[in-house]
UniProtKB/TrEMBL annotation:
PANTHER family named among the record's database cross-references: BIOFILM ARCHITECTURE MAINTENANCE PROTEIN MBAA, DIGUANYLATE CYCLASE DGCP
Assigned keywords, A-Z: Membrane, Transmembrane, Transmembrane helix
Annotated organism of origin: Teichococcus aerophilus
Protein name: EAL domain-containing protein
Residue intervals of the GGDEF domain: 359-491
Source organism phylogeny: Bacteria, Pseudomonadati, Pseudomonadota, Alphaproteobacteria, Acetobacterales
Cleavable signal peptide: none
Residues passing through the membrane, by range: 21-44, 50-67, 88-108, 128-154, 161-179
Domain EAL: 500-748
Amino acid sequence: MVVRPPANAQEATVMGDQCNLLFLLCKLFSATGCVNVVVNSIAFGVSRDPFMMVMVAAILLLYAAILRVALRWKRERDDYRFLSQAQTLFTGLGFAWGTTIILFALNGTADQTVLLLGLASGVVSTPIISVPMAVAFGFFIPNALLSIYAVCLVMPHADMFSATAFISFCCYAAIGIMFTNMTFSGRSEARAALQREIETVNVFLREYEQGSPDWLWQTDRDGRIAEATPRMAEAVGLAPAILNGRKLAGLVSTVRDNEGAEDRNRQDLAGCFQDRQAFREMLVRHEGAHGVRWSRLTGHPVYDHRGRIAGFRGIGRDVTAEHEAREKVNFLARHDSLTGLLNRRAFVEVVADLCKEKRSFALVFIDLDNFKGINDTYGHHAGDQLLQSIAGRIHHSIRPQDTGARLGGDEFALLVMGADGEEGLAVAERLAQQLGQTFAVDGIKIHPGASIGVSACPKDAHDPQRLMMLADLALYKAKEQGKGKACLFERWIEEEHHSLITREAELAEAIRKDQIGVHYQPIVDLKSHRIVSAEALVRWNHPTRGCIPPSEFIGTAERCGLMEELGEVVLRTACRDAMTWTTPIQVNVNLSPRQLRSGRFPEILAQALEASGLPSERLGIEITENVLLDQDDKTLRQLDSIRSQGAKLILDDFGTGYSSLTYLHEVEVDGIKIDAAFTSKLPEKKVAMIYRMIARLALDLNIYVVAEGVEEPSQMEWLNQNGIRFAQGYLLGRPAPSPPATRVEYLA
């Protein structure tokens, strides 16, 4: 067991710790050892034995040498040299003490047995607290062996019990030396490893702070910044000298943040300092030389060696760009990107929250009039600018506590806080007036106008979905009243809406159950007095309400998408009925624009003619100018297909639309029917001139003319005098379900 040079840094650290302890033990052992040897030598009569005097002197010299070696290590810090010399000196000291104890046993009396055992035990136990093991056992082994010899064999009145007890004590001392050294070495190695880790962490922290945008911070127990780093000073925008000593919680303000861990928002920074609570990714705001900045702080309490709070330590990270980007994303998630108003989702959430809190407010729905036409005429760019201008007027017309939103397209909404229905209607009327004023867009003056519906919470509804539905119903009613109108919801509006829904369901059921019938109104040749054709007019044979005229359900069919199905029923019924008439006259069927949307009408027409067997030349299809408004290719192709199948095309309600003459140029028709609005005013001079002009035009185009709405004999007389050959009206025959007669009874 020899002291060896350290093989690595850890062994060198352990050896240094051993030297520190051994230095103290050298001073302790030297002092106590010198006293013991002098006192006991006097007790055992050292003066009687010259050899004993030599051994005592040797012990004193060895203690002096040990003390000298220790003091030199203190100056030079040569660990290996110190331990090597100490091992040699302590081994020599062990032999000297063992030999001296033998001499004390030889010269001692029986009365000194206890003193001898005590001295031997004390000297043997000395290296129990000594390190390293080579030094400790260098002293212990020779001293223990020689002491055992003295106690067992040389000591006066030596006995087996004393010898056994002393040998056991020596074994205990040997085990104690081993455990002491192993424990010391383990702790020393652990301390060395910890120190290396600390140094490594410090290196990493320095490199991290130099190469990372994050920065380190530290406070004392009062939360005051200690040793502010340059990176922290740069992030906060203040000099390190200014930062040191300032309270960190007073320098920044904690921001409630919905992102991240749940414990982040439980307390602010000052609360965490006060409660000595660690925190993670806490969002804080601070102002400095760089303006407003946002950072996230992570920290934990630091304790001193007595377990008392010493302060806080942690890392800060500048998240200004990230925070501003997230704020922008959050804003866009809740606001319309074009107008900056709340979007539909956010607005619905606000309405739901207000209803949940049982707040009083008026809900205003706004729909622009003719926005599609403006968009199509001036382009989407102008349309977007118009929407922005409208949003600006809405924003400036409301109070700070009110809320505006764009629900999508040309739909806007408004919350008027603390208002009832009447107050909400007053706001809506003022807003309708403002939105009806001129808007300048790219130098173009536009008059969009808006229809507005109003409902009130809690008077009308507490449920947000129902409240919005009622505002929608009021908006639709405002549109029915004309452009630029505002309407407050009333119960009758909902009742009318439910009635409409019921009518839609009943109409769909009526089509399925064959409750749709057809009446026929004759078209008469005024010269021959004969009926030349009949117009098929739909009727609803309701099981309880009787015969319902088309004016009460055609609009319903168009709104709910039943027009194509209803028109097909009328077409097939008219073709089938016409085949049963004794006189093979023409039957005319009206065609709605909605029947052309799917593009299936030519196919339906062909199937109806084939199923009924009706010759196509006996069928007339009456169209209004509404069919021709768009003049898209699909519509024109279907109209060409109708004529190509042999059916006649008749332009109905001629003169009431936008450009009847243009349509005569675009579409080949076989006849025109002059609207009853003109006929009812005959024989006024202007109307008469229009009639004559249309008649001459039709003659030139080889198109026949039918005068609609003939109800007075004077009207029929004027038509006869001016060459209008065909007429239709109540005077000549009312619509009836029976087949038309051959001649008109009135004329007969």
